[in-house]
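Please check what follows.
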Amino acid sequence: MSHVPQAGLVITVGTDRVCLRNDRLIIEAAQPMDWPVREFCRVPIYFEGRKFHLRSVTNGHAPFARRYELWPWPPDLHEQAPRAVIYDEIYVAERDAAARTRRCGDFWHLALLPFFPFLGLSWSGFKNGVLAKAGFAPREITSASIALLFNLLLVEGIFVGWLQGGMLMWFLQNGSLRPVDLALTALLATDVVLRYSQHLQSDVDRPWGFCEWLWPRE
């Protein structure tokens, strides 16, 4: 049988603090929750077998982030949102885990942001699986990497064609590297053309990384 806290009794639900005051439920939440305050089509929130709706949301006092005031669901109110919330320790644990994941993603997003054009050189599995969770859209970083390689191709083309050398040959002062520069020019040109051709297709969900076209996946 479900148990409802007596009026004025303070209990903990995971990392939250909950108090029942005159049939109103006060939740001091450690993490914000996406509960909307509505006059119509309210979201039903269940706690210990009772049905509530959200009346107000205010900033909490440390260590709590938000303060939620819930009122009993009116017996004559039949209109409600299709989504219902069961507020319990499982809900709080999942919410806290999602918040930790977001914070980790935000950290890596800021840490990797200076390398934005280079991230698109990663292969599609890493972009879709890891970088996407850090807030980087695979198509956007792929586009930036194509532009980066195109500019590099222009520079290499000037060294190879006009200066009769190559970037590696000139910077390393080694004339034997000219064949390597020629091969690099061909590789950059091929990669830019093939990846840009794929990028122009709007239905691509796994944009290629550098030279991934050598081992395409279905």
